[in-house]
Design brief:
Structural class: alpha/beta
Number of domains: 2
Strand order of the largest sheet: 8-10-7-4-3-2-1-20
Helix content: 25-40%
Radius of gyration: 22 Å
Shape: globular
CATH superfamily of the largest domain: Ribonuclease Z/Hydroxyacylglutathione hydrolase-like
Number of strands: 20
Number of helices: 11
Strand content: 15-25%
Distance between the termini: 7 Å
CATH topology of the largest domain: Metallo-beta-lactamase, Chain A
Amino acid sequence: MEIVFVGSGVSTAIPVMGHFGNCACRDAIETPHSKNRRNNVSLLISKKKPLSAIEVITEKHQRLQPKLSSGANGSDEEQKDADRHAQRRALTLGDANVSDSWNILIDCGKTFRTAYFEQLIQRKVRSIDALLITHEHADAIQGLDDLRDLQSFLEEGQHWVCQYYVPTFLSPFTMKTLTRQVEYIVRNSRVMGEAPSSRSAFRTLQNAVETKLPAASRVIERRSTALDLWTVPDDHPQQFHVPYLCDGNEGIVMYSVPVEHGAGYMSLGFVFGSGVSFRNSKCNNQTLENGGNPKRGTCIAYISDVSHVPANALAFLQNLNKIDILVVDLLLGGGEKHFSHFCLDDVWELVRILRPRKVYGTGMYCTLEHNSTNASLASQLRLEHESGSCLGVESVELAFDGLTIPVVV
């Protein structure tokens, strides 16, 4: 398994329109593959499929794949129409055997399409198997429409049949925003209710929906993104089951960790991995489940949009036996403050408390140039070590678009 930074930049992305001066935008403009080029914050969790799953998907794909006509029957025009229909149908099915990994995406913002062609196409990502949404700002949801090109649909006459609704996890507040902003996507989708914590509960609820809804419910007028919408509370940490990621024998678990992204406005962070384990199995009045490989597996904490970590979220994070990788919001440099984002001083304060093994800043503005900022972060970490602080912290650095980190399961 590995995580891939699909984007690591502020909402405007980098370069910022109109910026030509003494900031990271200059290098981002002049150097096509610069680490200062940053799309909206987004992360891909890529997990290898077992061979049995690849074989099943390939067989299903071949069975559904339409055949071009032989020309033996009907008029030439009828045959051409049938062939065009078959070709369009084949395109919407995609090539199921291209990717050998399950793809779980965190956030799908306004630069997602650009990020796909810059970072994901070389990984042969042809589908998104599950989606996690942190909050309802444009840099987290305005690429949802483009997800339809990573879904399988069958064309049936003037309508489309959705082959797979993407399991999507979001807060109730974000759900309300989707209903207002992308009503046509919500209309195509299925509202599933509260996200269950276990695989068995997830499958029970999913099967109940499949049984209750008629087959005709899969028929849609527009080939638009279609989701299975599961809500996750935004007032306390909670475990929830993510299909494909948490399936299998690896024992990968997923927890939501709500944090403030501006006073009173909540955004979801996430803690996941087979290395997740807790000092105390009871926290915030709930029983906590360890991952399947607590000693050698990787524990990842992902907090991409935060201005303040509430007490219950901080208690949850401090209850972890270890954090191998902390991905954290880092908008501006030292001495700066922002009402809705962590800046460098905030990051160091959290690092001193949690002492994660490796730290990656994300969501940077153009005042944080990649190479010079990383040099400064390395120097500061040496000073922290000399003072007896941040013991066990091996590195603090900026992430960049395309950065890929192996994850032990």
